[in-house]
Request: fold
Amino acid sequence: RALVNNPAVILADEPTSALDDSNCQAVLDLLSTQAKQSGAALVIVTHDTRLKDMIDNKITIS
Reply:
């Protein structure tokens, strides 16, 4: 529902934390595609280490 209005920023808080590998990839693909199509920035906050190699631009906070 939040994506209907084409937001400038898409915020995703732990979007893949409880998902298996294939669904993790599917969610990341969906979010990335939506962000690219709408020209939005995609901000993902996560502890999911599977995403670290799937995301081009990242900021790591320890």
Notes: The two ends are 32 Å apart (CA to CA). Residues 21-38 form the longest helix (18 residues).
